[in-house]
Every structure is written in C-alpha cells, then in structure tokens.
C-alpha cells in the first residue's frame, strides 16, 4: 500500500487504465515491461521502463544519502502511529502532477513532509490536460522529470516501509519482548552517514562503531541524534569527519519525530559533540568503568586535551595510572569531549576520545 501511494496518480485517484501514466509505466518494468503491447489510446507516448531507473535507489544508498527509518509523528495521530507513514507518503506524492491534476502542497505539518518537498524544486507539478485529447495531455515528458519524482518518493517509501515494519515488530514484541517502544540495545555501524536526518534510540544502551564494520560520519551529515536510557559508548571503528556533530542524550526514547520547529531541541542532559579536527572516536564514559585490557602493561603517562586542543591535565610523576584513576578524574570534569593521550610502560601509545555526558 505504501508503494502504491508513492505514485502521484494513485493518491489523486487519476484513472490510468486506458490512458498511460508515464511515471508508473517507467518504474514498473517487472510486471509491464514497458507496456509496449498495451492497447492504451496514448500508447505512442509511453516511456519504456528500465532496470537502471528502477534500481537506482536501494536500502544502502537511501540510508547513506537520505537518512534512517521514518519515525511516527509526535504531535498528530498519536493514537495510530501508522497514520504518519501513509499520510506523509501520500502528501509527498501529491506534490507532483498526474495526467489530469496539478500538484498539491496542502498538508498537515507532520513528520518530514515539508523538509522533503522543499529539498528540491525539480519535477513536474503542472499537467497539460485537454479533455478528450490524451495525445496532447499529460505530464512527465522526459527522463529528468521521471527521475525527479522517483528521487523524492522512492527513498521516502523505502524509509517509511522500514519504519512501518519496525513499529509492527515492536507492537508484536518480535524484536523487543519486554514491551519497550525502543530496542534495549542498539549497535550503530556498517554505514556512511551523509544525510541530514539520523536518529538512533535504545531504552538501555547504544554502541557506535565497529572495527570490522566501521561507521563513517561525513561533514555533510546533519546532527547524528543518539538517545539512550543509560549509556552511549563510542568504540573503535567510528570515523568522523571534521565539523560533523553528534547529539548524545541520556533519557527515555520517544519513538517519534516532527519537523517543527525544524531543529533538534536541546535537552538539559544532552551533550553536543563537535568532532573537529578529524579523528576516530575510541571510547566514551558515562558513569561506567572502562575495563583495562592490558593489565600487564600499565599506563605511566597521561595527557588530556579539551575540544579546543588545549591541555587541561598532564601527569608528571611517572607513577602507574589505573583505569579507576582515569574514571575518577573524568568524573570531576565538566561535560565535554576530551582527547586523552596514554603511554604504557612498554611504550604502547593510545588515544582515547571520551565524551563526558
């Protein structure tokens, strides 16, 4: 149903059984193979479908360039979160024209409708309808117009369908039997984040990064929003470009999102991590001890720098520094991002980036 609603003619109830709908034909190569033998009255106007056009967007490309799954609205349809997916998909499709109707931008301001529609000025929003003369009527007359519709509707329907399935799985306790509206734990890895919208939530903890399946955050990505009930931990395998930003919030998940007022609202217990200059985030601290993996090679030197690359502490005695010492020292510092340079007795050097939330 969501896939059907990604086609402008469907949400406008514009009949296209005898009169070709160019966008649906162009994106429906499996079933129709371009409708070349269809006895439609305007068959000479048909644009054959192609796998290249249809398969341009897949889940990996969508996640990298358009964002994570769609979450329900926070302000409307709270009794039925599934309204968000169907209503917003219909309104995004309705932005474009069909054979008989112009595009329409009248909608309730929920979810991502406004930001997606305003993200591009391309695409056919005006039709040329002449009643009784279909050969002179219609819209989407070239490849660029077809692709403009596809590039706005296709990524959203993939994200919305993922959100729909996610909510069904939660509702039926298929992925979180304890009944929370968020997973207990969440691992964020194996991706390249370039899109303006990412939000990851868990009722207990979130682990960001993986050595084998690393996560890359580009400087063009919007604020990466992480919300967990207890712990947010950055581990080896998270790579962040200069100027990228992470919002880390320790609080209950909401499982919903809306555009207005257009920016993520900072909470009292949120820490905004400005990742600059470029480096790998290794560890974070949030009232949790970091276990020592190398007890046989004790740490004897520690230098800590703040987000402005200013040295705020440096050990000078050469005594052994324990993990407990590091944790106790971090506990006395203000919220912020700290880069700690450690050197062991055997010469092993390590850099830890610790987010004091």
Any key phrases for this structure?
single chain; 357 residues; Immunoglobulin-like; 3 domains; 4-stranded mixed beta sheet; elongated
Description:
- With 357 residues, the protein is of the alpha/beta class.
- It has three domains: 4-171, no CATH class; 185-231 and 242-275, no CATH class; 299-356, Immunoglobulin-like (Sandwich), CATH 2.60.40.
- Helices cover 22% and strands 21% of the residues.
- It has a four-stranded mixed sheet with strand order 2-5-8-11. Strands 3-6-9-10 form a four-stranded mixed sheet, with no helix packed on it.
- Strand 14 (336-344) and strand 15 form a beta hairpin.
- Helix 6 (82-94) packs antiparallel against helix 8.
- The chain is elongated, with a radius of gyration of 26 Å.
- The model is unreliable at 260-272 and 274-295 (pLDDT under 50).
Explain the layout of strands and helices.
Layout (H helix, E strand, L loop, with lengths): L7 H4 L10 H5 L2 H4 L18 H4 L4 H7 L16 H13 L18 H5 L25 H29 L13 E4 L2 E3 L4 E5 L2 E4 L6 E3 L6 E5 L2 E4 L3 E3 L3 E7 L19 E6 L3 E3 L17 E7 L5 E4 L8 H9 L4 E9 L4 E8 L1
Helix pairs in contact: 6-8
Describe this structure in a few short sentences:
With 357 residues, this protein is an alpha/beta fold. It contains nine helices and 15 strands. It folds into three domains: 4-171, no CATH class; 185-231 and 242-275, no CATH class; 299-356, Sandwich (Immunoglobulin-like).
């Amino acid at each position: 149903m969501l896939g059907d609603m990604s086609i402008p003619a469907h949400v406008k109830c514009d009949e296209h059984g005898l009169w070709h709908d160019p966008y649906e034909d162009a994106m429906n190569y499996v079933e129709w193979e371009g409708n070349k033998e269809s006895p439609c009255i305007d068959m000479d106007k048909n644009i054959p479908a192609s796998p290249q056009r249809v398969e341009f967007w897949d889940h990996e490309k969508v996640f990298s360039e358009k964002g994570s799954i769609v979450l329900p609205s926070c302000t409307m349809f709270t009794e039925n979160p599934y309204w968000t997916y169907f209503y917003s998909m219909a309104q995004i499709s309705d932005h474009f024209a069909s054979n008989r109707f112009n595009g329409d931008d009248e909608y309730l301001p929920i979810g991502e409708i406004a930001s997606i529609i305003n993200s591009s000025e391309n695409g056919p929003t005006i039709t040329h309808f002449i009643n009784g003369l279909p050969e002179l009527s219609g819209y989407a007359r070239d490849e660029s117009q077809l692709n403009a519709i596809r590039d706005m509707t296709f990524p959203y329907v993939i994200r919305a369908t993922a959100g729909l399935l996610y909510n069904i799985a939660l509702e039926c306790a298929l992925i979180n039997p304890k009944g929370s509206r968020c997973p207990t734990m969440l691992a964020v890895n194996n991706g390249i984040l370039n899109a303006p919208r990412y939000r990851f939530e868990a009722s207990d903890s979130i682990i960001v990064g993986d050595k084998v399946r690393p996560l890359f955050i580009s400087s063009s990505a919007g604020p990466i929003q992480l919300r967990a009930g207890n712990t947010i931990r950055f581990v080896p395998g998270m790579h962040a470009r200069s100027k990228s930003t992470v919002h880390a919030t320790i609080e209950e998940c909401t499982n919903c999102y809306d555009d207005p007022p257009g920016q993520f609202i900072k909470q009292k217990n949120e820490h905004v991590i400005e990742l600059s200059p470029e480096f790998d985030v290794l560890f974070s601290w949030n009232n949790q001890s970091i276990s020592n993996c190398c007890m046989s090679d004790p740490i004897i030197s520690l230098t800590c720098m703040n987000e402005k690359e200013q040295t705020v502490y440096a050990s000078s005695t050469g005594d052994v520094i324990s993990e407990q010492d590091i944790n106790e020292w971090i506990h006395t510092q203000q919220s912020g991002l700290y880069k700690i340079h450690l050197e062991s007795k055997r010469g092993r050097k390590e850099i830890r980036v610790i987010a004091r939330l």
